[in-house]
Amino acid sequence: MSDIYPLTLLYDGDCAICRFEIAWLKRRDHRGRLRFVDIAAADLDARRWGRRNGFARSVAPQALSSPGAHRGQS
What GO MF annotations does this protein's record show (predicted)? Predict the structure, then answer.
């Protein structure tokens, strides 16, 4: 999980609401402190993000940071 710096957001790129929220966050991330990972991407290797391949996209959005994973809706 060394790629998690300082906050990585896992989101469902097939979800219109998720895409809208991520676009909003990207516009406001002026310091480049957020990373975004589309878990709907065909080439996603979930193990890279500490998850099992094929993990459900229907789970609540997740944010990964050094201390651990955080789950919930924005």
Answer: protein-disulfide reductase activity
What value, to the nearest 5°, has the Cα angle with vertex 61 and ends 60 and 66? 125
Q: CA triplet 55, 60, 63: central angle to 5 degrees?
A: 90
Q: Classify residue 63: in a domain, yes or no.
A: yes
Q: Work out whether strand 62-65 and strand 68-71 pair parallel, antiparallel, or are unpaired.
A: antiparallel
Q: Tens digits of per-residue pLDDT, 6-35?
A: 788 888 888 899 899 999 999 999 989 898
pLDDT tens, 26-60? 999 998 989 898 888 888 777 776 666 555 555 55
